Structure of Metallo-beta-lactamase domain-containing protein:
Amino acid sequence: MDTPIISATITCSSTPNNTLWGSASTVETTTVCIRSSLGCISGEVYKIDEDVSVLPTPGHTSEDVTVLVKTRDYGTVAVTGDLFEREEDLSEPSLWREVAGSQFPDKQETNRNKILAVADYIVPGHGPMFKVSQEIKNRLKPD
């Protein structure tokens, strides 16, 4: 299926079905493959345009990414996949560390803090979007 309206797909965690979108470029995990070019970008920030960028945020797995979107109504929205399972894991770390399982908990904690510092809202892997309040930002651990 060739779908010209869809120009890119972004997967926050590895999944095998991204070939469904025909000629669309694919951002899957920490490697970006542009269908119209031969190369891939791996392990670095990929800027789609002025308002959308993809950042490597390993932790839950080694390949996870977060999509940052600058919006007019919500400020910076982070689509994080399983970097955040749901809002409740902010107050109960065992939800992302043990229950969901983190392959690299130190990296995940570092990347969670980085995203919390820049995001106004987070779309987690398994729950509704939530606001990153000033109270949450005040609890961040310094680097």
In short: Residues 110 and 143 are 8 Å apart (CA to CA). The chain has a mean pLDDT of 79.
